[in-house]
Design a protein that fits this description.
The protein is mostly helical. It has helices at 51-60, 64-72, 87-93, 97-105, 120-127, 130-138, 153-159, 163-171, 186-192, 196-204, 219-225, 229-236, and strands at residues 32-34, 41-43, 80-81.
């Protein structure tokens, strides 16, 4: 997936767009890093006979039989490519539940993040893959980590309007009014992106529309700034 990071708010109140694009870079050119043990070893090309390299290439190609074969032959399930992506993270980015289940069944570290600090749960939340999210949460995925942009899974679910994913994260214990980078809450992210259904869900779950970010702007002010009239109306409703 290609991405564009959110901008840090300026100290003045100049208009800026808050984009909720996660740091999910495209898979690198077949380089993989094995983290099984203290000695890291690189495999440089698709023709490399390393089982770890074969595993990561198979993951990139969504080749489940090849993934299963590599794991059965002893590939390290937590091997990582040059971007730090594991089989499990690649599976999450590709919406591939079967491949994710193969990784989890082989003992994958459910919270192991990429170089960009993206976890499998963040990827699944961004894409709204609720079934995969459930599998990750049941396997012990934490909702608390933030990526290099200081955003957790709930921010991506809210900003992308993934209401089912958002509800699942709230059910898993994420505080509805938790404030993240720049004192932005999930409600503010949803409002700023014009995600009316996510705003409705958050309000129904008790989110406070009166909270303000580090510029003193509420969710309604952010929605108004973004030209999201329907969201403004929701936030104005008694």
């Amino acid at each position: 997936m290609t991405t564009g990071p959110c901008q840090t708010p300026p100290k003045d109140n100049r208009v800026r767009r808050r984009r909720v694009m996660v740091a999910f870079g495209a898979l690198g050119a077949f380089g993989v890093l094995s983290l099984s043990g203290s000695n890291a070893a690189w495999a440089q090309a698709a023709s490399n006979t390393s089982l770890n390299a074969q595993l990561l290439v198979a993951a990139r190609q969504s080749d489940l039989p090849a993934v299963q074969r590599a794991l059965q032959q002893g590939a390290a399930v937590n091997s990582r490519n040059r971007l730090g992506k594991t089989l499990l993270l690649i599976a999450a980015e590709k919406r591939n539940l079967a491949m994710a289940e193969a990784a989890l069944g082989a003992g994958a570290d459910v919270n192991l993040a990429s170089v960009e600090q993206v976890t499998p749960l963040m990827a699944a939340s961004y894409l709204g893959h609720v079934e995969l999210m459930r599998a990750l949460l049941q396997a012990g995925a934490s909702t608390e980590p933030v990526d290099r942009l200081h955003k957790p899974a709930v921010v991506y679910a809210a900003g992308q309007g993934q209401t089912s994913a958002l509800a699942l994260l709230l059910d898993a214990g994420v505080p509805v009014d938790a404030a993240y980078e720049n004192k932005l809450t999930a409600l503010m992210w949803a409002a700023g992106q014009g995600q009316a259904e996510a705003v409705k869900l958050l309000l129904a779950r008790g989110a406070k529309p009166t909270l303000v970010d580090d510029r003193g702007m509420s969710a309604m002010a952010i929605a108004r700034q973004g030209g999201h009239a329907a969201v403004v109306a929701l936030l104005q409703a008694p």
